[in-house]
Design brief:
The chain is an alpha/beta fold. The chain has 9 helices and 9 strands. It starts with 5 loop residues before the first strand and ends in a 12-residue tail after the last helix. This is ABC transporter domain-containing protein.
Length: about 240
């Protein structure tokens, strides 16, 4: 079997703000169809890493993308007041006016129906009135409109109940498998990392560990990552 196409290679990546060093010496790669999870404590630089990958901030080091690579991004939160006068349809029209593309994207995240059905039951709704799970599906659909090669997810189930979390992760897994996407996701749930990720990058201002979860997430690495004695135990059925 031929080697998967490399989407991104990062070497010796570092970000600092004035004299404050956010992280340094990060090196990793991701290939088509792979899932890379980023784990670490709050303030370890995970979201800053995403901002660097999106080239929203300055960084040092090498970041080499596949030629013509397209990137999708789903933020951790999108706070929209329920009275804010923007509909789901308006939100999609910021990116495309194609009813076919909008329908295809929404169908792919489980919001089924033709465009007329979706317009009546979803697209005419105010964005701020959607539930957490509905909004997350809409954000994912919006992010895949341009058929990206790589999707970045900043804690994709933040603010969603436990049942909804599993649904969203299963959706991401199906979407990634069917479209041969590469995924980089930030997660605090190590069970999810074991279940879905091909590789994990442990970040706490530097790269604590990197590799297959079952190989690198040992007690020593977790203790170094989170400090002190870790309370995490891997479920054997995963």
């Amino acid at each position: 079997m031929s080697e998967k196409e490399k989407i991104l290679e990062v070497k010796d990546l570092a970000v600092s703000f004035d004299s404050f060093n956010v992280f340094h010496d990060l090196s990793f790669e991701i290939r088509r169809g792979e899932v890379l999870a980023i784990v670490g404590p709050n303030g370890s630089g995970k979201t800053v890493l995403f901002r660097a990958l999106l080239k929203l901030i300055r960084y040092q080091g090498l970041m080499q993308w596949m030629k013509g690579a397209k990137i999708g991004y789903v933020p951790q939160k999108l706070s929209v007041d329920s009275q804010f006068p923007i509909s789901v349809g308006d939100f999609f029209h910021f990116k495309t006016n194609s009813s076919e593309a909008i329908t295809e994207a929404l169908n792919s995240v489980g919001m089924t129906g033709d465009f007329i059905h979706l317009r009546h039951h979803l697209l005419n709704k105010k964005l701020g009135t959607l539930s957490g799970g509905q909004l997350q599906r809409v954000l994912i659909a919006w992010s895949i409109l341009n058929k990206p090669d790589l999707l970045l997810f900043d804690e994709p189930t933040s603010g969603i109940d436990v049942g909804g979390e599993e649904t969203i992760y299963n959706l991401l897994h199906r979407l990634q498998a069917s479209s041969h996407l590469a995924l980089i996701l930030i997660s605090h749930d190590l069970n999810i990392v074991y279940k879905y990720a091909d590789k994990v990058l442990c970040l706490n201002k530097e790269m604590v560990c990197y590799g297959a979860p079952h190989e690198v997430l040992d007690p020593q690495s977790l203790s170094k990552l989170y400090g002190g004695e870790t309370k995490f135990f891997k479920h054997e059925h995963i």
